[in-house]
Write a structure and sequence with these properties.
148 residues, alpha/beta, Collagenase (Catalytic Domain), four-stranded mixed β-sheet, 45% helix, globular
Length: 148
Amino acid sequence: MITIQMRRGAAALVSRKLLRNAARQTLLYAGAPAEADLALVIGDDALLQRLNREYRGIDAPTDVLSFASGEIDPETHLPYLGDIIISLPRAQAQAAGHALSDELTLLVVHGVLHLLGHDHGEEAEKERMQAAQDAVLQQLGCPLQTRL
């Protein structure tokens, strides 16, 4: 199950269907269990800055953070992959020149790949994650091709 939480007012700008579809397509591409659980949170810069400072030691907002869990949900007995938190204002700013829906799709795909163990800290990891991200974005019909 993909749980989505949004800050007040975000629902008018963000399609839950689009977010779920991007997450599901990424899970399918990566061969993750279809029944795996994750949470998507659409927040603001203040939330992302606080989490970035607390968990990464970086006192600045960012566009997306992923917190992998890898636990089993005690109620459903399904894998709980973790949480993805996206800053809507940052996504809106980065979407200058393209659709906000495309930017959100990119951020969800990127976040889910992190939950599944992808990273871009080293060149070989970066190339694998970039290839996966590009493939999923193409499958979703998203025209963005950003470099990690």
